[in-house]
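Q: My labmate handed me this sequence with no annotations at all. I'd like to see what the chain might look like in three dimensions before we decide whether it's worth expressing. Could you predict it?
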Amino acid sequence: MRLLLTAFEPYDIWEQNSSWEALVTYLHHHGSVPGITTRRYPVDLEKLQARLEKDLSQGFDAVLHLGQAPGSSRVQMEAIALNVAGMTEAAGDFFGPLVDEGPVAYRTKFPLGDWNHHLRGLGIPSSVSFHAGTYLCNAVMYLTHRWHQVRKQECKIGFIHLPLTPEQVLHSRRDLPSMPREQSAQAIAHVLELILKTGAHSLLA
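A: Here is what I predict for the chain of 205 residues:
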């Protein structure tokens, strides 16, 4: 089974991105895992789309994107990506679609309820979210689904938001929740284990 695992570079006021920090920590503990390709994506829609399409053309059985969610106190597993090219929580503003003539939304095929139950059983705060939220996080999930739909290729696609790290909050003037990067990396490791285990069973079936 081949899996693409991505995170984002720092953006805006953040000198780090908790998704990338968690991914680096995961790799530090687990090393290079056979079948898993990792990437760090730019926070720029045009550059992101070019990089994403280049990576997806390599062919993957599953794709898991990671991003940071300032204000979140738990690991958030996203169910739905919308065809909206903008900050979807900006009340009153209207943004055009990411893809003209594209479907309104895509829903992940990953068993988020099972993942949530598993992580919470391990003592990792988590939840299922039904909105992928901000601009690029939503976009990368939507565009990944769209790329595979157009080519009629089967692929399971998901997105996980991670809280800020304590270091990010320490240097911020805002009162925000955080999660140690070690715990975020642990969540990633367990989700990947579930994906790879399920994938291995389906390939043998």
